[in-house]
UniProtKB/TrEMBL annotation:
Name of the gene encoding the protein in the UniProt record: gltS
Source lineage: Bacteria, Pseudomonadati, Pseudomonadota, Gammaproteobacteria, Moraxellales
GO molecular-function term, one example from the UniProt record: glutamate:sodium symporter activity
Keywords in alphabetical order: Amino-acid transport, Cell inner membrane, Cell membrane, Ion transport, Membrane, Sodium, Sodium transport, Symport, Transmembrane, Transmembrane helix, Transport
Chief location: membrane
Entry's localization field: Cell inner membrane
UniProt GO BP: L-glutamate transmembrane transport
Function: Catalyzes the sodium-dependent transport of glutamate.
Protein name: Sodium/glutamate symporter
Family under the similarity heading: Belongs to the glutamate:Na(+) symporter (ESS) (TC 2.A.27) family.
Membrane topology summary: Multi-pass membrane protein
Amino acid sequence: MEYTFNAYYTLIAGTFVLLLGRLLVYKIPFLRNYNIPEPVAGGLIAAILAYLVYLVFGVSGKFSSELQTGFMLVFFASIGLGANLSKLKEGGFGLFIFLLAISAYILIQNLVGMGLASVIGLDPLMGLITGSITLTGGHGTAGAWGHILETKYGLEGATTLGMASATFGLVIGGLIGGPVAKFLIERHGLATGRSVREEIRDDKIPVAPTGEHTTFEFPHKTRLITADNAISTLAMFAACLAFGNLMTDIAKGTSFELPTFVWALLGGVIVRNFLESVVRVPIFDRAIDVFGNASLSLFLAMALLSLKLWQLVDLAGPLVIILSLQTVVMALFAAFVTFKIMGSNYDAAVLAAGHCGFGMGATPTAIANMQAITNMYGPSHKAFLIVPLAGAFFIDLVNVVVIQTLLKFFG
């Protein structure tokens, strides 16, 4: 039996998951020491409880996907709204190098999946599903390519397998990023962690109105905004989402077809720079921060709350082996390649955590991973500048090119 929860109850449940996660992280030293994001901690407990209820009573819940999608779009729009031209230029060479790293890993991820699938006697395309289609692409890409693989390449169950693999990646991506960064930071003596008391004390100090900060970098920091700021910012978000939906419809079936969240992000860049450079309207970054961080946390909480862990049980043993190996390869690549080529410093360690997030799950997971690190060890302006841009936009374009190229050779 499945119960359907409308948007109101979904919002209540998502908020409860966040509060639970925050309590767990502050009360359980293991979670805090290994920088497990609060939405992941609370969401996993909720998913496990839902699994137990399903096993014992045969009852499951279905939460509002529209609300979850809405928060995801607001999150990506906030990335665009926080990206003025000076920030885009500031990314510069570091962004280019990071793009090379993640592009190389997408190819490696697919070769690992397809190679191991061939070794254990599966169709190589099965390995592609457990590669960048689902782990880098996430649930949206899994659904889109799953349909193509079923109809065009005759791979039965590709969509179901893709959703299960993407679910696995979302969970693992939120679990390995923190430990990888912690290992790098402590091994190389890059920073000293703060205590819980120090975090609470620092978070009470408001972000200065003219202070230099990056969106998402200080999720628990106090931000001073007014009702007027909030209303004008909501209007900008609405414009970004409207632009995203409009462009999705216009570009459908063309060579410019992109996921709605990418259009929402581009809408944010256009709205921000048009208002700031042409109309000369001041942009309140603090309000964008508040809405962006809240949407990020709620999206992750709802995504994990909606997990049906019993679907993972349906994965055959060989596929579990592939996904486990992908986890190990991701952690090793982030620790010994991403970290090295990005400078082997604190920023590089935070970037490695971010790479684990969207390399196995999604960009929101990458941001949550980095927030967990910077909450304990201090800010990383470079990481919070590069990862949102790379993970939300460029990585999807690279992923599509790599997948299509591999399909031409092995399809």
